[in-house]
Design goal:
By secondary structure, this protein is of the alpha/beta class. It has helices at about 15-30, 55-60, 65-70, 75-95, 110-120, 165-180, 205-215, 230-240, 250-255, 270-275, 320-335, 365-375, 395-410; strands at about 10-15, 35-40, 100-105, 130, 150-155, 190-195, 220-225, 245-250, 280-285, 290, 305-310, 315, 340-345, 380-385. It folds into two domains: about 10-180, Uncharacterised protein family UPF0261, NN domain (Rossmann fold, 3-Layer(aba) Sandwich); about 190-410, Rossmann fold (3-Layer(aba) Sandwich), CATH 3.40.50. The chain is elongated.
């Protein structure tokens, strides 16, 4: 006898008062794709033609207020902020109870603002699709975007269920149902070491460390620190999913200091520390600020040596004073860590282009970084200085020496989270 087919449940979130036609169409498309639709109404103005499964009064109640209080809160912005709070709480509860498998939200800027909160309330691995008029826009700050978020541009959907709008709605519905059918939530069968890098051409240590960590019974997860990669790393670290972190590519910190759009947000380097996760840290690639290669170099860095990595991203070298500023900020963040911290300083260079004769080598800037590090207050953190480049075997050996010592002392746990 065949087992009954279990249809994935898709939580559709939208403002029923203004988007009844679109939400009704998405429900049909979810069902046509082989899913079940669960509609949550986050509108506050009136009732729409679609009868939701979760009424706006329930959403308001989950935020600790009544719907009338939401309506009286002041303006549309404050009202939707309250609805976002309630919708996030309900979505997280539904997921924990196994009553929903995927998320589908649609909206303009207001709905997208709410959608980012709701999507962020769900764990990594739960399919999340947002249909938005501002998909992929620079209006969306990276720190608010879940690492596994999928977005579809809501083209031609400002008003009316025209053919362009239907195409986008159907695509989004199919994407989330399909994702739910093949989704594989991370199992974490083995303890995981979270590591950061910036591509294997710039930073190479993971090539040697992967085999070494595997022999010790650990799975290695490497995150590409070009904004969203660092965001994903921080999110998992804050959830306590790593037994240890090896945070060796901190360029996103410098990017934020330099005003770059390639940022992981203001809490970079803080997730693991706040959870007490053991941290081995190095200042990899912190001599660079990234900017879009198709745009203009930031004016404050004019005249500095630069490197076009490809047609999307370029890097410019920072000056000695900014490197000192970074060292002070690094010390400040590491002092706040609740667990063991070890900083490894490779005195001969911190990324592949930072070698004598390489295009971005700056001996004066490197010296300034190391000098400022010698003057910083590192709190309880231990500091090792090695006469090697970050891509040399000596760096890997120093990292493993620290890791093995922590492992022997029980500071790094071998149990999966």
């Amino acid at each position: 006898m065949k087992s009954p087919v279990i249809l994935p449940v898709i939580l559709i979130v939208g403002t029923v008062d203004t988007k009844s036609d679109e939400i009704g169409f998405m429900r049909e498309q979810v069902q046509a794709a082989g899913g079940q639709a669960l509609i949550m109404d986050v509108g506050v103005l009136a009732k729409g033609q679609v009868v939701p499964d979760i009424a706006n009064t329930e959403v308001a109640q989950a935020a600790g207020v009544t719907l009338q209080q939401v309506m009286d809160s002041g303006d549309e912005n404050s009202a939707m902020a309250l609805m976002a709070q309630g919708a996030s709480a309900l979505a997280a509860q539904l997921q924990r109870e196994g009553r929903m498998d995927g998320l589908l939200v649609l909206g303009g800027t207001m709905g997208t603002d709410l959608a980012l909160d709701v999507a962020s309330s769900l764990p990594l691995g739960v399919p999340k699709v947002v249909l938005s008029t501002v998909a992929f826009s620079p209006l969306l700050p990276p720190e608010r975007m879940p690492p596994d978020l999928m977005m579809v541009l809501w083209a031609g959907g400002l008003y009316g269920l025209n053919s362009l709008c239907q195409s986008a709605l159907a695509q989004a519905a199919g994407a989330v149902v399909g994702a739910c059918r093949v989704a594989r939530v991370p199992r974490f069968d083995r303890p995981v070491v979270g590591m950061t890098s910036l591509g294997s051409s710039c930073l190479k240590y993971m090539v040697q460390l992967q085999a070494e960590l595997d022999q010790r019974g650990f799975e290695l997860a490497v995150f590409h620190t070009t904004g969203m990669g660092g965001r994903a790393f921080e999110s998992l670290a804050a959830q306590g999913q790593f037994s240890c972190v090896m945070d060796f590519s901190l360029q996103e910190m410098v990017n934020q200091m330099g005003g770059s759009v390639v940022s992981a947000g203001p809490d970079r380097l803080m997730g693991a520390g706040r959870q007490g996760v053991p941290m081995i840290v190095a200042p990899g690639a912190t001599d660079l600020v990234d900017y879009p290669a198709w745009g203009q170099m930031p004016e404050r860095f004019a005249g500095r040596p630069s490197h076009d990595h490809n047609r999307l991203i370029a890097s410019v070298g920072i000056d000695a004073e900014m490197r000192r500023e970074f060292a002070r900020e690094l010390a400040s963040r590491l002092r706040q860590a609740q667990g063991p911290v070890h900083l490894v300083l490779p005195l001969q260079g911190i990324e592949e282009w930072d070698r004598p004769g390489a295009p971005l080598h700056d001996a004066e800037g490197l010296a300034a970084l190391m000098d400022e590090c010698s003057q910083c207050d590192w709190g309880r953190a231990k500091v090792s200085r090695i006469d090697a480049h970050i891509n040399d075997a000596a760096f890997v050996q120093q990292v493993l020496a620290v890791f093995d010592d922590w492992l022997a002392r029980g500071l790094v746990k071998k149990d999966a989270p």
